[in-house]
Amino acid sequence: MLFIIFILKSCVAKTFLRCLELSCVCYVYFIKVCKQQTYGVACSQACGYCSNGEACHPANGTCVNGCMEGVMGSNCKIGELK
Question: What pLDDT was estimated at residue 1?
């Protein structure tokens, strides 16, 4: 599933094309919703060992609530599970 979010600044425009027509400052962000335990571009990276088996952040793989015992790092990939 792919979502496109338009954030328009410096003018009022309801679509990206209209923003370009008005020469506005336009930002487009593409967010892909990954399946659980994957993250990154095209969901090609495996999540680490997040606490309680929780899913990692879909963009950067961080574990919001920490890591399982024995592993560490923002992505919970350093060390070995106990």
Answer: 46
